Amino acid sequence: MIGQCLLLRGSDGLHRFFVKDIATDSPEVIIAGEEAAHLNRVLRLGPGDLIEVCDGRGRAFRAQITRSDSGESRARLLEPILKDSEPDLQLILAQALVKGERMDFVLQKGTELGVHTFVPTICRRSVVRLEKGREARRRKRWQRIVKEAAKQCGRTIVPQVKPAVELEEMLREYGGEGTHIIFPWEGEGSLGLDTVLGNIFPHGGKTLRVLVVVGPEGGFELDEVELADEYGARIVSLGSRVLRSETAALAAISIILYEAGDLGAACRG
Ligand code: SAH
Description:
Layout: H1 2-9, E1 16-18, E2 28-32, H2 33-42, E3 50-54, E4 60-67, E5 72-80, E6 90-96, H3 100-113, E7 117-122, H4 132-153, E8 160-161, E9 165-166, H5 167-174, E10 179-184, H6 193-200, E11 209-214, H7 222-230, E12 234-236, H8 245-259
Parallel strand pairs: 1-3, 6-7, 6-11, 7-8, 7-9, 10-11, 10-12
Antiparallel strand pairs: 2-5, 3-4, 4-5
Helix pairs in contact: 3-4, 3-8, 6-8
Residues 184-186, 214-215, 218-220, 237-239, 241-243, 245, 248 line the site of S-adenosyl-L-homocysteine.
């Protein structure tokens, strides 16, 4: 066990870079765009230096830089890194649109905690509206925040930020067969998240998909709660205090991942 921990941590001191593709039949990977500029100009790494490369979809390798250029750098693949930083549980956060910095906060912290996919969700009381022209730009910014957070905290996937959708469309698209929908609502008096999770994870969180839906600053309207109920959502309480949207999201994520067995000791298996 001790040996395995050391092995998993062996590469942790290395700077990590996300690359588009890791082709194992090719001895080299290309580090492009902002990642190359960061490697070359900010960190001033050069040929011979060791780094870690990730494809953002779960694969990571130790690699040695062969060429350092701010436009495009290259590295030779050494050995795969057997990291276990991804939860077994696929956790989707449908976060109601909230104002700028709060959304950024949820995306950053949700990524650190282990969210797999973010779906910005338009609810009746969302005060933020995404204007058509700005939507693509905003999503790009959100995706960058998530990528930075993924890089910083050692994830091997970069969670996706999906295009913003209305609540019903979100439930239809992401809450289908095989997905447990958890819908925290401060108006729920009797059913707690703990009870629901006790039923969902009798044997831990393996291969499950959980969709957690968190409302905006002004909360959900009653017919939105009813709609979620029709889609099979479990309407749950997060306790007797009314939490801010971002607090509710991070509390729910932490509790779900904890109950799925993902927030325990760092060295598993
Ligand atoms: N309607 C409220 C505030 C909404 S809080 C008001 O203005 O008084 C924002 C979101 O956080 C809610 O839509 C809900 O999803 C979640 N939330 C906050 N506190 C909660 C609690 N105690 N239990 C369950 N969900 C909660």
